[in-house]
Amino acid sequence: MRSWPVFVLFLMMSTLSTAAAGEPLQYRLETGHVKCAQVLKSPNEIRIQVELTRQESEHFAELTRGHIGQLLQIVHADRILLQAIIRAEISSGMILTSGFDSEETANRFIQTLSVGHCR
C-alpha cells in the first residue's frame, strides 16, 4: 500500500473499522463524505482543507468521541493519508493536511476525491 505524504491533522473523517488489538482503527474517506476541498498555499508549505458533509461531520464526531486515545488511520483509495491519535471529539467537519511537495500534487489528490473546490 503506497502512503501519501504525512499529514498534519486538525480535524478528521468517517467509517472506522474495528481492528484487532494493537492495530489502528481505519476511517475510509469516501467521495460521498466530502463536501468540498481546496489547496491552501503559504510561502513555506502547501496544504489541503477538506470539508465533510454535514451528515458525515456528525457521524465523524460520534466516531471520534467513542475512540479517544486510539490510533486512527485515514485511508482513501487504499492509501494511508494520515495516522494520528484521537485526542478529543472532532466535531467541526474540517480537515487540514500538509506535506504536499507541489500544488500539482495537491490538486491531483483533490481530483481523486471527485469534489468541487471550496469557496
Short description:
The protein has helices at 54-65, 103-113, and strands spanning 15-17, 25-28, 34-41, 46-52, 71-76, 79-85, 94-100. With 119 residues, the chain is an alpha+beta fold. A hairpin with a 7-residue loop joins strand 1 (15-17) and strand 2 (25-28).
CATH architecture heading: 2-Layer Sandwich
Estimate nothing, just give the exact number of structural domains. Answer: 1
Largest sheet strand order: 1-2-5-6
Query: What is the CATH domain class?
Result: Alpha Beta
CATH fold type: Gyrase A, domain 2
Distance between the termini: 33 Å
- Give the total of beta strands: 7
Which ranges are low-confidence, i.e. pLDDT below 50, for 5 or more consecutive residues? 1-20
What is the structural class?
alpha+beta
Q: Radius of gyration from the CA trace?
A: 13 Å
**Please, what is the average pLDDT?**
79
- Specify the number of helices: 2
Order of helices and strands: EEEEHEEEH
Helix coverage percent: 10-25%
Shape: globular
Strand content: 35-45%
**Main beta-sheet strand count, sense and barrel state:** 4 strands, mixed
